[in-house]
Amino acid sequence: MSDFIRHECGIALIRLRKPLSYYIERYxxxxxxxxxxxxxxxxxxxxxxxxxxxxxxVINPRPGNPYMHRVRxxxxxxxxHIFKKVGKVLRKIQKKYPDKYLNANWLKNNVPYTxxxxxxxxxxxxxGGNGIESVHPFIRRSNWRSRNLIVAGNFNMTNVDEQFEKLxxxxxxxxxxxxxxxxxxxxxxxxxxxxxRLFDHYNQQGFDNQEITTLLEKHIDLQRVLQRxxxxxxxxxxxxxLTGYGAAFVARDPAGIRPAYYYADDEVVVxxxxxxxxxxxxxxxxxxIQEITPGHALIIDKEGDYRMLPFTESLPKRSCSFxxxxxxxxxxxxxxxxxxxxxxxLRDQILKAIDYDxxxxxxxxxxxxxxxxxxxxxxxIEEFLIxxxxxxxxxxxxxxxxxxxxxxxRPRVEKLVIKDAKLRTFITDDAHRDDLVGHVYDTTYEVIxxxxxxxxVIDDSIVRGTTLEKSIINMLEKLEPKRIxxxxxxxxxxxxxxxxxxxxxxxxxVAFRAARxxxxxxxxxxxxxxxxxxxxxxxxxxxxxxxxxxKEIYAPFTYxxxxxxxxxxxxxxxxxxxxxxxxxxxxxxHRACPNHIGDWYFTGDYPxxxxxxxxxxxxxxxxxxxxxxxY
Length: 631
Prior knowledge:
The chain is of the alpha+beta class. Helices cover about 40% and strands about 15% of the residues.
């Protein structure tokens, strides 16, 4: 994506289903789970590079020994930093106690990071700072093992203020108004309540406290805890939790917005945000990796048995389509085919944009994640050429020379756009900063016929348009083409996301800028004030009564009008080449990704009531000149 945006975090959970001694005997190391967790996290490093964390639970430890361990990092390479620290602990033990290094019982009671239950997290900081205190997993501690809770997740809640007030009404004193804090404390509160309910029950039956501890760990109902804690959550989430006694859960939001997959065999239960990570780390087949059902939680008990249980009423499934377009790794076979389809389905729009002049058109892509869509586009162009060849042969008798020309013609493909450097905006002067931005990308020279060729460049999506305006189009203009066609394999991003992606401010969307310019040209700027007033009234309503009034800003204009205005915005005055912008249609997005139809950032159709609240609030902030996030 030429416009960098931060996005969904990643989770990785492993529960060893056999004693540690089994893995030592079979794999020759006590680090089996550590090695697998490292692979799970490294294969999802695309999901977060601002920080990483790992937590480990030892099940059935001896009293007096630590049983919860956590390490977090905000270093430049946080995953490597974490596992270097964990590996250093084991190497020291191996060197100091070589005779005990393969003794599972001794390790569990004397060495950290040798427990059976693991949770890893990768963080992209879409809100707040990037200090170590912001890095998952978070711990809620207690001297009662069954009341300890560790939480990490890929989530964003739209109703944090409401959740904060509910914590206060429960008698708590939250230290921060953040969704991570409210999630941890809300689930923790109802875990405490479940503990107390069972304690009172068994106490009345005459069991002593030590007996009750054992009974608690056997009978705590995590489904009940989640039903009570999450019933009024509004947002997109895949939340993983570990209890101090060794049970675990991964709960997925009722619309299935955020991804979560699991795999289980007789050795492990594994959860991750992406299928390829599980496939790589455990060598299983893709059809063995299952999706956690929206509105359900995968609950793993202390013994390692697992069940998928509902904890809230499911909504119509609206899984995030950006996962398929860009965020998830493209080596998932389904995602690979979907991204190819996104490119393929752009063929007719692009042929129209180049006036069907393939002789004088050069195709390329903006590295590197758009490459798969580019392959699909070229497949579509090749199929178009096959039809044209068949038609030419059928309609008239061709000479040998003409026949050779028809059969040998291939679309012109070049690597034109090269990412040359990572920009460091240490120069504060705006003019010089823009000059730096203009050199983030470089190009391949002398492959374009000057003022004769059209250049077609495909990108994953166009969010802000800044890189197009300041860098890519300027760079392509140096090749002196007749026309530059910028193609987005995603539709027009018109509305903020509030479920995990860092797209929160209306004024940053180039499509929104285009709509405002069109309102001005058509003397309809009064619509901005009208929508503003409607949004002010809407945010006072109960959430289920709120509608998205920002749609009215786009309603007077066609899809093509918005695209054409975007092209005008990103074309600076000195650019001589004609500039066109082609966006994927929403209809073709759904054809390419039929099982991931979450499209609220394109259409404004939010899957939860909180989404409508947030989009109206974002527009209010825009109208009031505020650069604050709406959530």
